[in-house]
Amino acid sequence: MNLAHWLERSAAVFGERPAIARGRVAVCSYREFAASAARAAAWLHEQGLVPGDRVGFFLANQPDYLRLLWGAWWAGMVAVPINARLHGREAAFILSDCAATMCFADASHADKLAGHVPGACRIIEEHPFLDAASDPEAGQEALAPAPIAPRAEDDDAWLFYTSGTTGKPKGVRLSARNVRWMTMAYLAEVQPVAPGDAMLHPAPLSHGSGMYHFPYVLNGGVNVLPESGGFDGAEIAALAAHWGNASLFAAPTMVRRLVDWARTRPGPLPGLATVVYGGGPMYLADIEDACAVLGPHLAQIYGQGESPMTITVLPKHVIEDRAHPRHRERLASVGYPQPMVELSIRAPDGTRLPTGEAGEVCVRGEVVMKGYWNQPHATEEALRDGWLRTGDIGRLDADGFLTLLDRERDLIISGGSNIYPREVEEALLRHPAVAEVSVIGAPDAEWGEIVVAYVVAHAPVGENELDGHCLEHIARFKRPRRYRFVEALPKNNYGKVLKTELREQERAAAAH
After folding, report:
1. Around Cβ 184, how many Cβ atoms within 10 Å?
2. Are 94 and 160 in contact (CB under 8 A)?
């Protein structure tokens, strides 16, 4: 089944209901949404693309993003959404790695790609084929809508690029089956969606927020793109009041910003349904603060690209159950397994560990990825005996609630964005004055974590110079927020840098 059948169904059932909005203004109905997707599919076929081809999406949140995305699925293509905050070189690597035939972009992101994009990939900035109007004088005629391309249950639909322990991005292969079960998990455990309910998208459509638009397309909700193109507490509150029964996915840093804004005004936020938080660690004090300020609107999910948004859930009714004797303990957890997965805690040899013991979080089920794009060894490492090894360390309590303790990998999550130390280290090591470097994450009240670089230099160099150097090679959000210049890095007998010692040093420095 092609995912586009959902949009076709919604066009028939919900017809003139608003499907996509920009701020308070509806951009298109479900009938118009489906028609534009069908025209986009026809245009893609005219360009010589065939089902299974990879199509990149490197643009900011905007209505065309969703129309193009569903056009690609209508045509049977594989969507490759790329974080709009990435450096052009990083985005080009993804396009090259998946052998994308085409990439949709806006003007600013097309400029980013200039000089980096592989020659076999066409960059498309203008999208007139989405509209029904024709202009014979300009040689433009409306395209006849294409039929939905047949696709099998386990054909790739979404290629979600995430980084691995090496820092090189890996393409997570998600099929239509994966996406459907992910959607059902949201409807079953997070909240139901009725026609007209709204999902606000201040977070990037290329990542978590994009995953959450599916239930709304399926059930006739409206996907709302803030006019600001980002996160602003006042704008979110105004949109929730305007559309009603409005929800959003938010990284912990967004939750904190919304709380800070809401604290300045008395009373509840009208129209707000659910704030689903995830994508990074949220401390207990912040959760309790958010509950006190925002009211009964918070729900948490834990997942990763390899099992998108669907490992565990901490629903609203649990968060609000203050009478439970272990309420605070549950708030500090990431909830219990979602119904579409089986979860276990395992030792390095794969042995299942008993309740209360810490080990690697492992999961299996219909939502778990097919594997990594063109990386059979990485796939074999991640999927063992039918189980996804998440790389996260946690423990289950007697009631089945999962508490995450640490990450096996050195992933840094800052403002909901994944940052892998090796990427930053490699960028810094390109500077001629840097002899050695090790990058760690440090707790931060606003961002969850920030990037800290411990640098051994063999020539004079300052923070500003290194900062400018990083901006030439990696995305702005990945650059270190703090530099520590040291004479040597702590190492073990094998010469491996001891990041645990660096973290201890950072904690001690922060305490003073």
Report:
1. 19
2. no
Q: Which helix or strand (DSSP H or E) is residue 313 part of?
A: strand 307-314
Name the amino acid, one letter, at 314: L
What H or E segment, with its residue span, contains residue 364?
A: strand 359-365
**Residue of higher predicted confidence among 247 and 493:** 247
Q: How many residues can be counted in the chain?
A: 512
For residue 241, count CB atoms less than 10 angstroms from its CB and return exposed for 0-12, middle for 13-18, buried for 19 or more.
Answer: middle
HSE (side-chain half, CA atoms, 13 Å) at 248? 27
Residue 129 is classified by DSSP as G
Alpha-carbon gap, residue 16 to 183, rounded angstroms: 23
Round to whole Å and give the CA distance between 381 and 124.
36
SS3 114: coil
Q: What is the pLDDT of residues 126-171, one digit of tens each?
A: 999 998 765 444 445 667 899 999 999 999 999 999 854 345 789 9
Phi, psi of 326, deg, nearest 5: -115, 35
Q: Are the CB atoms for 499 and 457 separated by under 8 Å?
A: no
C-alpha to C-alpha distance for 368 and 371, rounded to whole angstroms: 9
Q: Which amino acid is at 143?
A: L
For 401-448, what is each residue's pLDDT tens digit?
Answer: 999 876 666 778 888 887 878 789 888 988 999 989 999 999 998 899
Please give the domain boundaries of the chain with CATH numbers for all domains. 412-511 (3.30.300.30)
- What stretches of 91-221 adopt beta strand conformation (E)? 102-105, 122-124, 156-163, 169-175, 198-200
* Sign of the dihedral defined by the CA atoms of residues 385, 390, 391, 392, in that order: negative
Tell me the whole-structure pTM to 2 decimals: 0.84
CB 356, CB 395: distance < 8 Å: yes
Nearest CA among 288, 279, 214 for reference residue 249: 279
Nearest in space to 429 (alpha carbons), one of 455, 464, 451, 467: 455
Alpha helices by DSSP H, 323-448? 327-331, 376-382, 421-429
Q: How far apart are CA 87 and CA 419, in angstroms?
A: 13
Tell me the angle at which helices 4-14 and 63-74 cross, rounded to the nearest 10 degrees.
Answer: 110
For residue 58, the SS3 value is: strand
Residue 73, both tokens:
């699925």
**CB 272 within 8 Å of CB 288:** no
Nearest to 375 by CA among 137, 92, 169, 100: 169
